[in-house]
Amino acid sequence: MVMTITLNPSLDYVAETVGKATGSVIRTQHETIYPGGKGINVSLVLKQFGIPSKALGFCAGFTGKELCRLLSEAGCDEDMIELADGFTRINVKVSGARETELNGSGPHISQEAFSALIQKLSALQAGDFVVLAGSVPASLPSDAYEQLLSVAASRKAEVIVDVSGALLMRALTFSPWLVKPNHHELGELFGVTIQTREEAAHYAKKLQENGARNVLVSMAEQGAVLLTENGETCFADAPQGTLVNSVGAGDSMVAGFLAGWLFTKSFADALQLGICTGSATAFSPWLAKKESVLSLLCESGKTDFMNKF
Ligand SMILES: Nc1ncnc2c1ncn2[C@@H]1O[C@H](COP(=O)(O)OP(=O)(O)OP(=O)(O)O)[C@@H](O)[C@H]1O
Ligand SMILES: O=P(O)(O)OC[C@@]1(O)O[C@H](CO)[C@@H](O)[C@@H]1O
């Protein structure tokens, strides 16, 4: 089983604009509402590969109802805890000359609701995968991720953590199966600016020394670096294309990496599928569709495992 946990899901209101406008009315050319939140995005992309997952988290109000409706429409299994008050946040993404994001703070989550989420993790079994991704709402205890990680570890589940800063460093003590910082986040952890893949590999090694089993550093159009628990360091180029939307590229990469691993049990294949899935999202209006990932895989020439999915 794959479980994804999104503590602060969203409806993503994505609007296309032209030009840059500050301090004035911005008129949009087009707008769409998508189910959002990092763990949810991972579930949606896994679904593209035919991999079922259960999306856990919290929802509230009319926006929460719409979120669950959209997930169900996408064929995505969810088990959201419905909160009595507030509403699921609406995150505004404005594309145009430059992407701008306005992420809401989200509803208040009570201790009771958080305990109910922890309770749901008891369904995990050894070898299951849990993806923990996205920000922690202010109403939750600061060690919320650690509490979830501790339950996942006690169930012997494999954990993927996609968070940044102190949350990431603290998560390392639970020996997560995979962490996926981007190179900016990795650099910030060590007070440096990372520009090359070699520098990324150097600092990724430090995350391994602190407990991470596998470290995937995404570097946008520069590709990615993977350090595996087998001691390998792999570099992968990103496919070339026109950037349309970078929101969710990292989540898509996580989903593609996990899908590749589940299909082949090969880190090299997982990396290749992860890269192509991240880039397919970057080149699409929103999250990648399977067909666009396959077409990038074909272009990369590394198609030997394509018949496995
Ligand atoms: N401009 C781009 N061209 C090609 N591929 C890209 C581009 N931007 C992102 N990607 C793909 O997506 C992957 C993840 O991108 P990135 O490093 O920006 O992750 P991220 O910062 O976690 O993303 P985000 O937070 O925007 O979802 C990259 O490794 C690459 O495969
Ligand atoms: O506010 P957070 O939890 O850090 O990020 C939330 C979010 O920006 O992440 C996803 C893209 O990665 C979007 O679907 C969503 O709106």
UniProtKB/TrEMBL annotation:
Q: InterPro entries in the record, alphabetically?
A: 1-PFruKinase, Carboh/pur_kinase_PfkB_CS, PfkB_dom, Ribokinase-like, Tagatose/fructose_Pkinase
Pfam families documented for this protein: PfkB (PF00294)
Write down the CDD domains for this protein, in alphabetical order: FruK_PfkB_like
Give the superkingdom in one word. Answer: Bacteria
Q: In which pathway does it act?
A: Carbohydrate metabolism; D-tagatose 6-phosphate degradation; D-glyceraldehyde 3-phosphate and glycerone phosphate from D-tagatose 6-phosphate: step 1/2
Offer one example of a GO biological process linked to this entry: lactose metabolic process
Using the UniProt record, name the top-level EC class of this enzyme in a single word.
transferase
Role: Catalyzes the ATP-dependent phosphorylation of fructose-l-phosphate to fructose-l,6-bisphosphate.
The protein in question is named: Tagatose-6-phosphate kinase
Q: Which organism is it from?
A: Merdimmobilis hominis
The encoding gene: pfkB
